[in-house]
Input
Amino acid sequence: MPVALPWPDTPIARVEALALVQTLNADLLSHDSATLTLDRWCADHRLADPGAKVVAERVRGQDKPATAEVRAALRVDAATPVAYRSVRLRCGDHVLSEADNWYVPARLTPDMNRALETSDVAFGRAVQALHFSRHTLAATLLWSPLPAGWEMSRLPGPPHGTTPLAIPHHVLEHRAVLATPDGTPFSLVVEDYTAAILDFPPPAG
Output
C-alpha cells in the first residue's frame, strides 16, 4: 500500500491530477455501480492491502426527509415511505466518497431492506441482485486544478513544486437514479467524491 504523499504544486502535477479526476468521472459514468467502480480504483491505485474491498461506514443520527424533488425522481407520492441512508465509502483508511441515499423500501426485497437497516453494507452490493441500471442526473467537477483558459497561458504553480498542491475535500459530485430493468426507480443518490481518490504517490516525472 503506497504512502499518501502531498502532490507538488507544479504544472505537470496539476494536469495529472485533473486527468485522474476525469478518469474516475468517466468510469463512474460508464458503470452502473459506484461501489464496484471504487473497488477497481482502490485496487488499481493500491490504496489498501491487496484484495481489499470498498466498505460502507454508516453515518448514524442523521435524517434528511425526501423532498418533493427526490419523490419526483423516484416517482412516488407524498404517502409512500422513502428511507434515507448516509454513508462514507471507505477503502482501507481512505474515505473515497460521502453519499446521501434516498430509497423506496417497497421496491426492494425484505432481505435487502434488512441488510440496509442493520448493517454497514454498501448500497450497491446490497441491491446487486436487482440487476439495476444507473441513470446519471448530473456530474459536476467541484475542483479543477487548471483555470479556465489555461491552454492559452502559462500554467499555475511554481515549476519545481516547492509547495504542496491544495486539493479541497470534495472534488467531484454525482447525482443519479438507480432503476430496475423495467425502468422503475428505487434509489436517488448524491455522491461527493473526496480528495482521498488521489491518496497515492504522484506519477513520477
